[in-house]
Amino acid sequence: MIDLMLIGIGTGNPEHVTAEAARLLASADLVLIPEKGEDKSDLAQVRRQICGSILTDSTRVVSFDLPVRDEATPDYLARVGDWHYAIAQIWAREIRSNLDGSGKVAFLVWGDPSLYDSTLRIAERVASVMPLRVKVVPGITSLQALTAAHAIPVNDLGKPFTVTTGRQLRDHGWPDGVDTIAVMLDGQCSFQGLAPDGVHIWWSGYAGMHNEINLSGPLEDTAPRILAARAAARAQHGWIMDIYLMRRQAQVGEIND
Question: What is this enzyme's EC (predicted)?
């Protein structure tokens, strides 16, 4: 039996690795590290640094190249599903190649495996082709790092909020029934498509990391600053992870009974 441990490592800050995560990572026989090309080498390097601070020489660390997602397929869910299947095939191949039917495999997950991450879905596909037990170790999410960086609560008193993606914001606009939205996975800065009146934005690039960038203010004034800062950071580092929270201005600073 293979034990697959999906270990949340926060936003890349080694101090975000919990004691539980460190303990289970140290018990692994095999750690899988994905590569995403030269422009994402920093991400793999952070995983290696975390491994280097915790693992002993007895743990095998194996890198693999992630397949490229087919963006030509018009059906978004279909092309993501095909991509997940291809990744699962690689996971299964590496597990079979490096373990003799049993052992502990660790996969380090940015943030937390439960929030807009596909490792659990990929693990389910792997479990369909080999005996597998899955354990999830929660990690600090980029949403937590964002609100901590700006020292704000994620929601107003007694009010709901929505966590969504840039794609959903572009396709459907501001979600109904909420005044606060957190937006993840938005490489196209979809806030540009919103009417800015009465909207406040809090944005973080590399939230929780040593090179964290934080900007906030009325959307109309802050959007150009975010676009410039994001472009400069991506040019400098070759990649960027960012997240933002928006609240309709009527809710900012309002005292609720």
Answer: 2.1.1.152
Give all strands of the β-sheet with 2-8 in edge-to-edge order: 60-65, 30-35, 103-109, 2-8, 132-137
Residue 254 predicted with pLDDT over 80? no
* Structure confidence by residue, pLDDT tens digits, 173-194: 999 999 999 999 999 999 999 9
- Report how many domains make up the chain: 2
Burial of 162 (0-12, 13-18, 19+ CB in 10 A): middle
pLDDT in tens, 112-127: 999 988 999 999 999 9
What's the pTM?
Answer: 0.85
- Indicate if 79 and 192 belong to the same structural domain: no
Range 64-76 average pLDDT: 84
116: left (phi over 0), alpha (psi -120 to 50) or beta: left
Task: Say yes or no: 75 and 60 in one domain.
Answer: yes
